[in-house]
Amino acid sequence: MRIYSWNVNGIRAVNRKGFLDWLEEEQPDLLALQEIRIQPEQLKDKLKNIDGYHSYFNYGEKAGYSGVAIYSKEEPLNVWRGFGIERFDYEGRVIAAEYPEFYLLNIYFPNGKSSKERLNYKLDFYDATLEYAEELREEGKGVVISGDYNTAHHPLDLKNPAANKNTSGFLEIEREWLDKLENHGFIDTYRYFYPEKETYSWWSYRTRARERDAGWRIDYHFISEELEDNLNHSDILTDVMGSDHCPVTVDLEF
């Protein structure tokens, strides 16, 4: 099963840039989208009902903000939205699916740059994610946590680490949570195969950073260690345009 994750920065915007053609050509088994930025009444049939896919959406209550989606060739056993925690769930950042072999959490993690309060919200959201993932593991299946984490883990994961050491997205306290995630037995699938490779998944529009490849690696597939034997490959598709992020992939064999 090849799983893709992509922050599309607006599903209608990326659709105008060839999203459906890309999907038809690439044929992911499972596609997790973040920041779809759409409301149910705005979602047209061509994006909701794509041949060969079951589709599921979680919308933020605020129009034009957040939202996540799953397109899956295999119909999941179950799909649900959110953690069951109102202060997090109303932003539409989580959609989860159960498959015979694993649970998928597709998450658009908060950005902490706007204020101290927002940074604390992000950190609380991180802790809720880990607690929820650990509860799922107790059900006897592995867990895949895919999405835009909004944090670069190591200096290798962004172009200018020294200049950003006091910027949310590379703060020590944010990076420590990713350490905690690994200490709980979750594997950064890209680093599993490419421990020293400098590859980014997000570039700022404001500074035309993609042209200079001055980016950040903030999009991940973390898998619980129960799935390590099933891990086959992981990649970052830097040549795919349409958003300020690019898709990241992981291949699991069952």
Describe this structure in words.
It holds the Pfam family Exo_endo_phos. Belongs to the DNA repair enzymes AP/ExoA family. Its EC number is 3.1.11.2. GO terms for molecular function: DNA-(apurinic or apyrimidinic site) endonuclease activity; double-stranded DNA 3'-5' DNA exonuclease activity; metal ion binding; phosphoric diester hydrolase activity. With 254 residues, the chain is of the alpha+beta class. Helices cover 25% and strands 25% of the residues. The chain is built from eight helices and twelve strands. Strands 3-4-2-1-12-11 form a six-stranded mixed beta sheet. α5 runs parallel beside α6. The radius of gyration is 17 Å and the shape is globular.
Record the SSE blueprint:
Blueprint: E1 2-7, H1 11-15, H2 19-26, E2 30-34, H3 45-48, E3 54-58, E4 68-72, E5 78-81, H4 86-89, E6 94-98, E7 102-108, H5 116-137, E8 142-148, H6 172-183, E9 186-188, H7 189-193, H8 209-212, E10 219-224, E11 231-236, E12 248-252
Parallel strand pairs: 1-2, 7-8
Antiparallel strand pairs: 1-12, 2-4, 3-4, 5-6, 6-7, 8-10, 9-10, 11-12
Please give the domain count. Answer: 1
The whole-number mean of residue pLDDT values reads: 97
CATH fold group: Deoxyribonuclease I, Chain A
The side-by-side strand order for the widest beta sheet comes to 3-4-2-1-12-11
What is the first-to-last residue Cα distance? 8 Å
Count of runs of 4 or more consecutive helical residues: 8
What string, H for helix and E for strand, traces the elements in order?
EHHEHEEEHEEHEHEHHEEE
Work out the strand percent: 25-35%
The count of DSSP E runs of length 2 or more, i.e. the number of strands, is 12
Q: Which CATH first-tier class would you pick?
A: Alpha Beta
Question: What is the CATH-assigned architecture?
Answer: 4-Layer Sandwich
Alpha-carbon Rg, integer = 17 Å
What would you give as the CATH superfamily? Endonuclease/exonuclease/phosphatase
Q: From the helix content, strand content and strand pairing, which structural class follows?
A: alpha+beta
Task: Please outline the major beta sheet.
Answer: 6 strands, mixed
Low-confidence stretches: none
Helix amount: 25-40%
CA-based shape: globular
